[in-house]
TrEMBL record:
UniProt-listed InterPro entries: AlgH-like
Family: Belongs to the UPF0301 (AlgH) family.
Taxonomic placement: Bacteria, Pseudomonadati, Pseudomonadota, Alphaproteobacteria, Rhodobacterales
This protein's name: UPF0301 protein RZ517_16380
Species the sequence originates in: Roseovarius phycicola
PANTHER family given in the database record: UNCHARACTERIZED PROTEIN YQGE (PTHR30327), UPF0301 PROTEIN YQGE (PTHR30327:SF1)
Length: 174
């Protein structure tokens, strides 16, 4: 929402990967990390790769553990080590084998690489939603994996039938 005071989350689209009584975890999917590509990340990790298949941005996934990597991907791909099945359409893997799969051309058809994540403690996300800090919308693979990061926030709003020009930083409760 426009009133979001934390610049790390301003106009962010966060894909929720896990939610339970212990808290919530998600990845920001519309903010590329400055000056970092998958190609460069694979080079840093000494993972051999084909140049054209790894010319993708690495995203700022959130402020928590920003040195830790996550790959959000289509639900058809499963890591041989560990994949969190978010739902039928999405999976998340945080082990190196998925980067090796992507580098060799054997990875998921759709993926988004992120460093760090967004996390909420028990009840924190619910409180923020009740304070109108966040809007929620059903996840859409075309939006999440789409190439134009600067259009994802507006596209998410459009799925709700809302335009950013009609949003207000003031909220009320009836």
């Amino acid at each position: 929402m426009p009133a979001m005071s934390d610049p790390r989350f301003a106009q962010s689209v966060v894909f929720m990967c896990a939610y339970s009584a212990e808290g919530a975890m998600g990845l920001i999917v519309n903010k590329p990390a400055d000056g970092l590509s998958l190609h460069a990340l694979l080079d840093q990790l000494d993972i051999s790769h084909e140049d054209d298949s790894t010319d993708l941005p690495v995203h700022f996934g959130g402020p928590v553990e920003n040195g830790r990597g996550f790959v959000l991907h289509d639900g058809a791909h499963h890591s041989s080590i560990s994949t969190l099945e978010v739902n039928d359409a999405f999976g998340m893997t945080a082990t190196l084998d998925i980067l090796e799969d992507i580098a060799s051309g054997q990875g998921p058809k759709q993926s988004l690489v992120a460093l760090g994540y967004a996390g909420w403690g028990p009840g924190q996300l619910e409180a923020e939603i009740s304070q109108n800090a966040w809007l929620t919308v059903e996840a859409d693979p075309d939006l999440v994996f789409g190439p134009q990061d600067d259009c994802k926030w507006e596209a998410a709003l459009n799925k709700l039938g809302v335009s950013s020009v009609t949003l207000s930083s003031e909220a009320g409760h009836a």
